[in-house]
């Protein structure tokens, strides 16, 4: 998760939007936004400092976890730039009567949860956040601690084995890859969701975490919970794709966008209105079984301009400890040591003459004064997928804004044999469609507006 604080990113503020009718004609949609700054008297580099710290923790745990283990809904999706957290956010409606909560959208998290009070456990109120009053919802159904669901099925989601009485709810202590955590009890609840045709529908029996306590960075301080989109039997993705068709999509607005700028997270068919005119849609294989619960892709190389970089093939092979995933919860892009050195060396050659700076305390190697720098002087960086598909991100996605007049190469070195992670800054301004049923990933350039 899980959470990646302050800076250029932050995924998500989603606003439910209407619609429901036939499964063939509608899709689920949520607004999605990105936001980033609420710290008092921040340093010029505070966002990238926080992002680096949280991303590094997240990547370490991702690597450890990997080694050991027809219409639809429409939800708003936007940057967390204005909230001081490096995530994207959306809004969901939970319970009966339905209450609205702002949540982090995370493709690396399996559990959906909200700040919650149940049977006297949990916060009465939280500053700038909402608390779900479970006992006020007629559709709230706790999961019992003596059930097979608790003792076996939810063991992967950190269910706690202690069960003093048959009436005791199934408890969890959910740990995120960035060091944050949430504690509470599992339940089944009703979600009210907007559809792409303008109507509204309800989904009953969704697994949700009623979190009485959570600890983490800016994302937890500014949001009400997490929307878990990882590939898991108990994630929001599993339920939504089963109902609305086996795919979901999102378009991440620029990570420096303000909260009034958003696009959508959609489960079901992708509306053509979110793409740019005549987009260059490309498709590659989505490997759903090799690095669960993450969304893995087969990258075979990286080029800069017309030059294919000399990167050992084992960097991309899962059996050698590598492999590559897309992760909405990581801001920067992590590359295994050999790939990282090849990429930054290749880009440096085209930044000769641009004054380099090493900001004090900033744990990122390559930053430059670029007030008068023309992006077009930097060659196109391209990721090459098995089968010939190519992903060419915008230059501002790999020479990223760190402070006024200063930009940095948006890559982090992952030491030794490690998983490569394509973060959300690299993904911005593209429409991404995850087709779970067909095991494909499609993408195309988009304004996301």
UniProtKB/TrEMBL annotation:
<dbReference type="InterPro" id="IPR001461">
    <property type="entry name" value="Aspartic_peptidase_A1"/>
</dbReference>
<dbReference type="InterPro" id="IPR034161">
    <property type="entry name" value="Pepsin-like_plant"/>
</dbReference>
<dbReference type="InterPro" id="IPR032861">
    <property type="entry name" value="TAXi_N"/>
</dbReference>
<protein>
    <recommendedName>
        <fullName>Peptidase A1 domain-containing protein</fullName>
    </recommendedName>
</protein>
<dbReference type="InterPro" id="IPR001969">
    <property type="entry name" value="Aspartic_peptidase_AS"/>
</dbReference>
<feature type="domain" description="Peptidase A1">
    <location>
        <begin position="88"/>
        <end position="444"/>
    </location>
</feature>
<keyword id="KW-0378">Hydrolase</keyword>
<comment type="similarity">
    <text>Belongs to the peptidase A1 family.</text>
</comment>
<dbReference type="GO" id="GO:0004190">
    <property type="term" value="F:aspartic-type endopeptidase activity"/>
</dbReference>
<dbReference type="Pfam" id="PF14541">
    <property type="entry name" value="TAXi_C"/>
</dbReference>
<keyword id="KW-0064">Aspartyl protease</keyword>
<keyword id="KW-0645">Protease</keyword>
<feature type="active site">
    <location>
        <position position="327"/>
    </location>
</feature>
<dbReference type="InterPro" id="IPR033121">
    <property type="entry name" value="PEPTIDASE_A1"/>
</dbReference>
<keyword id="KW-0325">Glycoprotein</keyword>
<dbReference type="InterPro" id="IPR051708">
    <property type="entry name" value="Plant_Aspart_Prot_A1"/>
</dbReference>
<dbReference type="Pfam" id="PF14543">
    <property type="entry name" value="TAXi_N"/>
</dbReference>
<dbReference type="GO" id="GO:0006508">
    <property type="term" value="P:proteolysis"/>
</dbReference>
<feature type="active site">
    <location>
        <position position="106"/>
    </location>
</feature>
<keyword id="KW-0732">Signal</keyword>
<feature type="signal peptide">
    <location>
        <begin position="1"/>
        <end position="22"/>
    </location>
</feature>
<dbReference type="InterPro" id="IPR032799">
    <property type="entry name" value="TAXi_C"/>
</dbReference>
<dbReference type="InterPro" id="IPR021109">
    <property type="entry name" value="Peptidase_aspartic_dom_sf"/>
</dbReference>
